[in-house]
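Example 3.2
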Amino acid sequence: MSNFKYEIVEKIAVLSEKGNWTKELNKVSWNERAAKYDIRDWNHEEGKIGKGITLTDEEVQILKDALGDI
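Structure, written as tokens:
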């Protein structure tokens, strides 16, 4: 397993909660790179991170527009 660093630079929203796990939308910097929008499961109490996706500013705008259409 490779080591990686992350920093949640902006907490935006908790989308859902299940036990100690939350699905969150945050801006996260991975390995000291520029922060991107990030949707993933987190267990902050145990320091665990679930699978998720990262999105650029442009991808978030496209997603926002698409969600506005439904």
